[in-house]
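Model: Ready when you are.
Researcher: Fold this.
Model:
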Amino acid sequence: MSAAGLRASLLLLLTPLIAAAEAGAFDWAAIDAHGVVELLTRDGDGDPRETPVWLAVVGERGFVCTNDSRWYANLQRDPALELRAGDGVYALRAERIDDPPLRERIDAAFRAKYPWGRWLMEFFGGDGGENCLALTPR
């Protein structure tokens, strides 16, 4: 086997291991340290949308919650997104959470991180987010 063929074979073998290591090294604690992060989605017409949101971490995943917002509609159409936190940009995938015990843990994490958040959301006519999404690296 040639050197180029050997390199290509090794790359094919190692790529899944490298990807798994990178996914396992995802640092949600560093992202959670930010008070506000930005979600980068695409509107129905393809235009980019940047939305500042609150994020809470429970276990090994980040979560965002919203009512019926445009960025939520974007993620229903295409769950791929990017998250900007400080100088970092992360490729993620969103998945709706409907598990009541997990949702209680997520709500508790949001109350702990943003104690005034529920009041603020109610002041502006919302409940803080009936739609909750788990964010995972893609």
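Researcher: Now this one.
Model:
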Amino acid sequence: MIRKANYSDVEKITELHFLSQVSGILGKLTSRSLKVYFYSPLIADQTILSTVEIDENEEIRGFLALRQYANREPFSLPYKNLILVKELLFLIIKSPQSIFLMLNILKTERRVFQKIKKLPNDFAEIQILIVRKNVQGNGIGSELIERLIKETKGTKIIVKTQSIKAAEFYKKHGFVESMKSNVANTTIFVLEYRGGTRNVN
């Protein structure tokens, strides 16, 4: 069953994040940072559609967050928060290659925003789609995406991912690769939903 996410889900969504082994910068942050600086703001923001897929025991197996009007204001983590800044600096010291990933993400964010902010129609952006690792392959991600496409009919949607597997998943649902950014062996794919023929098998 799919329902709207609420603030009481934040703890379980954060747990889902780690159980799903999300990669990239988000996968390296602590549980506290994810709860306070990422998932709580996503669910509290009225311009973001956030949904969860739950089983009969109310356990969350999947989560999707879609930011509407993505071409009006660029999305960014609260860089002015000292705790988060210290955590990111620690990541760079611990793993210097992380700086290249961060720079690539920032560069891609800027390029995408510069591209879509000039377009007349509103764009929405998938901020994150995660499915619990032990139930991946059961159609939960597809169910969340199909529900999203149905609810936002007529709205253009973009998504950014560092995963080739995820990029292929989105393509099966009608997304088309519109940009690719490469920096220091890190590739970020940008895909856009244009509707039309989909292959969800």
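Researcher: Key takeaway?
Model: The chain has a mean pLDDT of 84.
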